[in-house]
Amino acid sequence: MAGESIISMSAIFEYFKDSRVIRRGENSVKSRFIQNVVYDDDLHMIRGGLYASMKQKIYNVEIFLSSEGDIQKASCNCPKGLDVCHHMASLAIFAHKNLSVTDAACKWSKVKPSQEDTILTAEMCFASSSHPFFPLLKEISEEKEYGNHGDKISFLKEKLSLTKDRIVEVQKLTVGQTNNPAWYIARKHRLTASNFGQVLKACKRGRFPPTLFQTLTGNTNLGGIKQIQWGRSNESAAIEIFEKRHNVKITKSGIWLEECGFLGAGPDGIIDDDTLIEVKCPFKYKDSFFSDCLLEIKDYIVSFNGESFILNDAHNYYHQIQGQLHICGKKTCILALWTTKDYLEIEVVKNVDWQTNLNILQDFYLNKYIQYITE
């Protein structure tokens, strides 16, 4: 590694405090339990996959750094990952030894199994020859041709657009989503379906607060880490219930991009040629029955129409799922809701009238979001 490390050992000791956790982390690095690492300098974030002790399972770790290199927050989907664990320490130590502040944003490092101290580092830039399917907004906007172009919007639309073949390639390349480093990079500076609801509401109001753009770029406070981790950790439980109940096998999905190249959707799985599945494990009501949730909050994910549960079309999840259906070209999505006490399936049918929202989202991206990013 050349240059100053992105994280110091003093910062690691300050965050973890427990020398036993740090020692176990060091042992994991020496034992080559690091599977892959992604470092995003724009977000000051390190993501990595680490083998469990028996190397039969991979835990996903995220570490958020301050601009000074201190650890602000860390999470892991192991049983102890809502607190601190040696997997977090292992990733931090690996980053200290192998990632410098001069490294390019979004790099994927993978340990060679044959050489303990040698790290294979490869840039995963969308415009690179090894991955020609990914136009990267940041690199396009820095081109001399872009700066001199009279119609920058038309220039970007042409550069970012994708053919159907490339859309399929991106989807295949990013299967595994949070377990796949390419997935993080494919989402970077794109509007994905999970944020469609917030953007559409902002467009309807005609107000675009800084917090909206901070959410879209990932530069938000870390209050939702536990909620996100809870959802990721328990998604498989809902998938397993669905597969057993319907005697089907869910196909894992990557990210699907719209032909414009800057809108995307990553459903949790594909059931068949016409049907997606999206899983939600609400952390706030993780130990509740859904009927009890409806009594406590009026704008909940679902409502009861007297006969069955239906998706609340005013909720952001409605726009997320409609976005998935339109971008992925499917007819139906099964929304699977899971808590420790309850499980619920809701069929959501594609609303053809929702299609006009894609135009609104594209207009927002080209006329609002790009300006924020490039500035």
From TrEMBL:
GO terms for biological process: DNA repair. Gene3D superfamilies: 3.90.320.10. It holds the Pfam family YqaJ. Keywords: Metal-binding, Zinc, Zinc-finger. One of its GO terms (molecular function) is zinc ion binding. Residues 59-96 form the SWIM-type domain. It comes from the Eukaryota. InterPro entries: NF-kappa-B_Signaling_Reg, PDDEXK-like_dom_sf, Restrct_endonuc-II-like, YqaJ_viral_recombinase, Znf_SWIM. PANTHER family: EXONUCLEASE, PHAGE-TYPE/RECB, C-TERMINAL DOMAIN-CONTAINING PROTEIN (PTHR46609), YQAJ VIRAL RECOMBINASE DOMAIN-CONTAINING PROTEIN (PTHR46609:SF8). This is SWIM-type domain-containing protein.
